[in-house]
Every structure is written in structure tokens, then in C-alpha cells.
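Appendix C reproduces, verbatim, an entry submitted by the partner laboratory led by Prof. M.T., so that reviewers can inspect both the input and the predicted structure.
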Amino acid sequence: MNTAKINRLEVLAPAGDEERFNAALSFGADAVYLGRKQFGMRSSPTNFDYEQLVNAVNTAHSKGVKVYLTCNTLPRNTEIPQFEQFVTEASEAGVDALIVADIGLLMLIKRYAPDMEIHISTQTGIVNYATARELYDLGAKRVVLARELSLDEIAEIRAKTSPDLDIEAFVHGAMCVSFSGRCLLSQYLVGRDANRGECAQPCRWGYHLVEEKRPGEFYPVFEDENGTYFLNAKDMCMIEHIDKLARAGITSLKIEGRAKSAYYVAVVTNAYRMAVDEYYKAPDNFQLPDWIKNEVYNVSHRKYCTGFFFGTPQESQYYENSGYIRNYDVVAVVEECSDGRVYCTQRNRFFAGDTVEILAPSSRPVTMTLNELYDENGKPIETANHAMMKFSFNSDIIFPKGSVIRKEL
């Protein structure tokens, strides 16, 4: 293959706050998407105020990383007057693009910030090349396709749209039971509007049947013999199929998870960074090492599937329960290394003698037994048991700042 024609893939990572943002940068993201207090589809994370946004953009740009700001809710009339300030501040902060789902907001962005790059959110539900073309003609630089498309359908969209139009697709993370996230269940049941970033995820709940004349008597509801979680989708994972995503013409590989932990962002971003780098080495013969593939299992996750990429899903629902699979605890984060010692900040309790894994960016995890721990004054300790305490241990290996120390449960 002519390497000049290889589709350059962007690893796009989520950031719900500054800690998660820094994790994305440290572990290899090409771009980061984040939200502010308004107009974003994730209201539960801390998100970014204006000063934090400016600092984030400056930090990202210093590392050659782009920042995309979400404004992908479906705003009501009362919110429209506030949108001009939102766009103006985004432009002043230097964000690289705004992610929008509403046609009216798209046109307002063009009015308020004519030079701003515009990405069309998955919330828009783009499933065909005609829609992608029209959005491009309206000024969109990128479309984030609906998650319900197959690779063949994506390839046709790529073939029948301008090569200047970027194509982004979600490749990892939580799946919504409703089409492109357009769900009303949360609003009906608990008054939290999923289309305004407030989803309570009732699709993850277990349900029973109640007969109106027998209140309080609950009857199990079975989709099949496996259980009652008939709305609960598995998580998506496409890390083994980077070559197929590239061949379909996808420009940007989007990782879901602005509400996930900094550890999740670090590990999953790192895994996809390394997977993409492996693809570049041999695009015609992509072989993902098992240790990279296994990294996505080392974060809190539901069972994985490949979504709609290979056609209508056959095993995409998770019937057993609505919980997560969790195999590791983060116990510390590396602050610095000097004179044969690693200096850290504690995250969860652990003990001298524990065996841990240390994950550094773009590196295979290193397994170590920490026979000796020292407090911030250099005195030996038996356990790191205080939240955010400073401690150290001896090591001949130098780990960069931000490396994650984890312990298997």
C-alpha cells in the first residue's frame, strides 16, 4: 500500500473535567472533546468554566492536540439568547470546533463566529450521504455519524461526499438503546431530559410487571431465559478492527465517556493510541497484540460488542444485570521520578508488598511488587491509606508524570 494514501486516523478522547482532560493529553489523544455548563449532552460531569476552557485549549495546543466543544443539546426558546455569548467565548478561547446537533444553532454559529469549524453531532441522526452532503453545503466540516450504521453504509457515505468532509464515528463506550440518543424514557420516568444532557439511564434498570388490582406484587419480565434487563445494551468496542474502520473512510475514532473516570480515559485512550500506531506499521496486515486488546478490559465496563458496524447486532444486549465489570483499582498516580525513586499521590489504599501494574503512555504495563513504601518524609510505611497522601518507592525504571498505578482486585 502507498503509505501516503493511508487514512490518517484521529484518536478523539472525552474529558469531563480537568483531571480527565490531562489524562487524555498524557495518554495520546489527537483531539479532546469537552463541554461547558450549558448546551452540552453531559450535565453530570464538572465540565469547564471559561477560564478552565482557555487553559485547556492553550495546554492542548502546546502539545499539538485539538479541542472540540460540545453544544449538542436541543435548546429551548429561552436558551437561544444565551447562545451568542457561548459561541463568542468559544471563539475567544480558541477552540478548534463546535459540535452541534441543531440546525438553528449551526446557522447562529456561522453568524457569530464565521471562521469556527463546525461538527455535526451524532444526535442529528445522520444515516445517509444526502444528509451529509447538505450539512457540508451548510458549512459543516465534519459529521459524527449515527451509531446505527454498518461499515458498508459508512463506506458509501464516504464515497458519495466531498473528501473535504471529515467522518467521525463512535468506536468505544456505552451504547444507547434509543436511536442516536434521541430517548424520552428518562424524561417520562424521572423528569430528566436525555436530550438536554440529564439522562438517568433508565434503560439500565431492571423491570417487573405489576397488575393494577394487585399493587405491590411484582412479576418478573423475561425477554428470554437470560434475564430482565431487556433495554440494557452492551458497551461498544472496535479496538480489534482499526483497519476496517480506516478502510470505511472514517476520519476520527471517538471514545465515549465524558462522565467516566480519569483512569478510564487514560487506559482507553492509551489502548486506541497504541492500536492506531500498530495499524500504521502494517496497514495491509493489521495484527493487534493481545496485551493492547486486553487493556480495554482493565477498566470498568459492561460486556463488549461491535454495535451495528457489521450489520444488525445479534448479541448486543446485556441481560444478566445492569452493572459494570471491574477488575482493577487505581491506587496511585506518578508525580515524578528522581534518584531511583518514584514519587506518587495515593488514590486508593494499598500495602507494602502488594503487586501492582504501572501504566505509562504508549507503553506496555509494568508489573512490580512494591516491597517498601515511604511517606513524604522518606520514612518507611506499611500502607498508603490516606486519600491523596504523598509517598514513594524505589525503582530502576523511570515513569513519566501521570503514569497510573493499579492493583488487580
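The chain has ten helices and 22 strands. Additional entries are available on request from the coordinating office.
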